[in-house]
Design brief:
Length: 717
């Protein structure tokens, strides 16, 4: 195959002869061999492919010293790299197994042995060529059609080579242009239902005659996935919503409430003409209050359990609440610490009065995947002084005989029962809030963190599915490389998944997470969506810049979800620097993505896009400044508050299907109300709504915006 492709790209044979020679291989090899042959461009016993593509002098005509020192001229090298891009695309998409000879992807030159076996050019790679290979590899990994699909070549024009690859799920079309000067027009009758350009992530639509028209530039490559997207996702109704963490709801009992204050908030949303309430993750938080690093992927945050609701259920007495309220007012300890201790004492008192019923039994059955493990983890946490589980003795590991024996003891079992009761309280109160929201026409958008804390029950229970050392600590951690948002990158310190290990049991842990999420919420935001395609792996105790990209599970994971649950109510958080393969994944899955006004204010202020854009537009997220705060740090004509209000009107009038405003922006608050500053601790996650913030005039203001921009019909409830 190597010689065939070289003769093709160097124009030593007509295109029809290239097709004939490849078909000859197909006809003379058994199918198993034809699809298993290595697709080689370079190897240890051949002149480097880049040297050949630059049309260097024949090495037999050179002296040993000339062979050693020869390098292509800038013109030759540029031409060689452009040709190699074409051959690399063919290498990845033709039948066979691509095998890259080290350094080809980095732009290494050299004549035959030993000059083709030099050291890898660390930090001197051709980064554009390497990125091209990475994109092609991502495309290759994403679709099995490249492995088992039919091979059907065609010649769409002079110097153009094309072929179909098809299986029962996908149809791909590849077209390459070997000409160095000519651009060819491509008319594609095979794309009457549209096509996804896998090298740009853009969707191409046919013209009125049903043909897709495109141009193939000199030494250009086109790779299309033909047909409509798989569409694993549901589509959101046009509308508007507000982002408010449950922890930001007012409560005299701490941070947030699942009682009357939550219902009062939902009433406000309905009165405001809103359709969506977006929240942050509902799992327990870490010591700093972050919901993105909790100790359980499945349990709810017990801090939000409303104590008055326990009185209504008959599990607490109102006098008990009055007594403990007086106690914390007299305490010298920090208020939140005092409240937490009192809350858990009240939970225990409620548990002692609780009699399990059918609702409780149903809850235990529906949550059997995680519930008992969570309870045992909480008991052990208490038993070992709240130290990290990696410091516990070996008999406190879930796979140990000592742990099993301990679970059989009555005292341990009783303690576990209490830690099953608390998640039950959360689940019951959350379901009541969710049901109330549905009655009022409000859909709740939940949030699913990408990663888990190393000191979580999920990592403790499933150590083989996380990248850990022998003691259970992360071997590598998650983060992002240096980019336009952070010059140093970010180290998140969460353990990474062992995706291949998870694949062995059909991603059971992730399937259960999604099962619970779509039961809890109407819509689910997937945090750090790009991590499902590729994620940044950082060796522990190093800097973000020391990491490297690794492949995630890609669309296979979402196919698994779709097979389990049908159409998925998922939203992709696709912010930041998004690559072509991530855009491809987003399109193929059909998930709605996100935009943030603060990242591209000029684009949204122009407001010239008339077609509805199936995405969500935010003024900001929990990680951003408030809109007024942003205006204060980006001076313009006018007071920041008035400029922010003008921006909100532009956001509502935008083409985005759904617009979401953080409640701080609705209220016109400055950065004193900012919820989180990424990479910092101590003062985050503290802002709370005041009871008197939910004014009638504020609701009327939002309703006018919704009606004016047709996000709700005039007079609609």
């Amino acid at each position: 195959l190597r010689e065939i492709l070289l003769d093709f790209i160097l124009e030593k044979q007509p295109v029809f002869l290239t097709v004939r020679r490849i078909k000859s291989l197909q006809e003379n090899y058994p199918p198993e061999a034809f699809y298993a042959n290595f697709n080689l461009l370079g190897s240890h016993d051949r002149v480097r492919i880049l040297t050949l593509l630059g049309e260097a002098p024949d090495e037999t005509e050179l002296s040993e010293e000339e062979r050693q020192t020869f390098r292509l001229s800038d013109e030759q090298r540029n031409r060689a790299i452009r040709r190699l891009r074409v051959l690399a695309a063919l290498q990845m998409t033709l039948p066979g197994v691509p095998c890259i000879y080290y350094g080809d992807e980095a732009g290494v030159e050299g004549y035959s042995d030993p000059y083709n076996r030099g050291t890898y050019p660390w930090e001197r790679e051709n980064t554009e060529l390497k990125a091209w290979y990475q994109t092609l590899i991502a495309i290759r990994r994403a679709w099995n059609v490249w492995i088992n699909g039919t091979f059907e070549p065609f010649i769409p024009g002079e110097d153009l080579l094309g072929f179909y690859r098809r299986n029962d799920k996908d149809t791909m079309v590849v077209v390459v242009n070997r000409s160095q000067q000519r651009t060819f027009s491509l008319e594609a009758p095979w794309a009457s239902s549209g096509a996804l350009d896998l090298l740009t992530g853009q969707v191409c639509f046919p013209q009125s005659d049903g043909k897709l028209r495109d141009a193939v530039p000199p030494l250009g490559v086109k790779i299309f996935r033909v047909g409509p997207p798989s569409r694993f996702a549901r589509t959101m109704e046009k509308g508007a919503g507000v982002l408010l963490a449950v922890s930001s709801l007012p409560s005299k009992w701490g941070k947030g409430s699942l009682g009357e204050e939550a219902k009062r908030w939902i009433d406000f949303l309905a009165e405001s003409g809103q359709k969506y309430w977006q929240i942050l993750p509902v799992n327990p938080t870490d010591a700093y209050g972050s919901p993105y690093a909790g100790q359980s992927a499945f349990a709810g945050n017990e801090d939000w359990i409303d104590l008055e609701e326990l009185v209504k259920a008959g599990w607490l007495e109102s006098e008990e609440l009055l007594r403990v309220e007086q106690t914390w007012k007299e305490s010298d300890a920090p208020l939140w610490q005092t409240i937490q201790k009192i809350r858990w004492k009240l939970f225990y008192a409620a548990w002692k009065r609780f009699v399990p019923d059918t609702a409780y039994q149903k809850f235990c059955q529906e949550n059997r995947f995680w519930l008992r493990d969570y309870a045992a983890f909480c008991v052990l946490k208490q038993q070992y002084g709240h130290s990290v589980w990696q410091e516990w003795p070996s008999d406190a590991r879930p796979d140990s005989l000592g742990k099993i024996k301990m679970e059989q003891e009555a005292a341990f079992s009783q303690k576990c029962a209490f830690y099953i009761f608390c998640p039950y309280l959360f689940a019951q109160q959350w379901q009541n809030v969710h049901n109330y929201a549905r009655q009022k026409g409000i859909q709740i958008i939940g949030d699913l963190p990408m990663y888990m804390s190393a000191d979580s029950v999920d990592v403790w229970k499933n150590p083989n599915e996380f990248d850990l050392d022998e003691q259970g600590y992360p071997r590598c951690v998650a983060g992002v490389p240096p980019d336009g948002f952070s010059s140093d990158g970010q180290v998140w310190n969460h353990p990474l998944y062992r995706w291949l290990e998870m694949k062995k049991n059909h991603y059971a842990w992730w399937v259960e997470r999604i099962r619970q999420a779509i039961r809890r919420f109407d819509w689910v935001r997937l945090d750090y969506f790009r991590g499902f395609e590729r994620y940044w792996e950082i060796p522990v105790n190093t800097n973000a810049s020391d990491g490297c990209w690794k492949f995630g599970p890609g669309k296979e994971l979402f196919e698994t979800f779709y097979q389990q649950f049908g159409s998925l109510p998922l939203i992709a958080e696709d912010l930041g620097e998004i690559t072509v393969p991530v855009r491809n994944l987003l399109h193929v899955c059909g998930f709605m993505g996100m935009d943030v006004f603060q990242f591209e204010p000029e684009k949204w202020m122009e407001g010239n896009d008339s077609e509805e854009n199936p995405r969500l537009l935010y003024s900001g997220t929990h990680d951003n400044q408030t809109l007024v705060g942003w205006c204060e740090t980006h001076p313009s004509d006018g007071k920041p508050l008035y400029v922010a209000q003008e921006m909100i009107e532009k956001i509502y009038a935008s083409s985005a299907s759904v617009v979401i405003l953080p409640m701080q922006d609705v209220l016109g608050l400055g950065d004193e109300a900012r919820l989180n500053i990424p990479g910092t601790t101590g003062k985050n996650w503290r802002w709370q709504l005041k009871k008197d913030d939910l004014k009638t005039e504020t609701a009327a203001y939002l309703r006018r915006l919704s009606e004016k921009t047709h996000r709700i019909k005039m007079g609609e409830e």
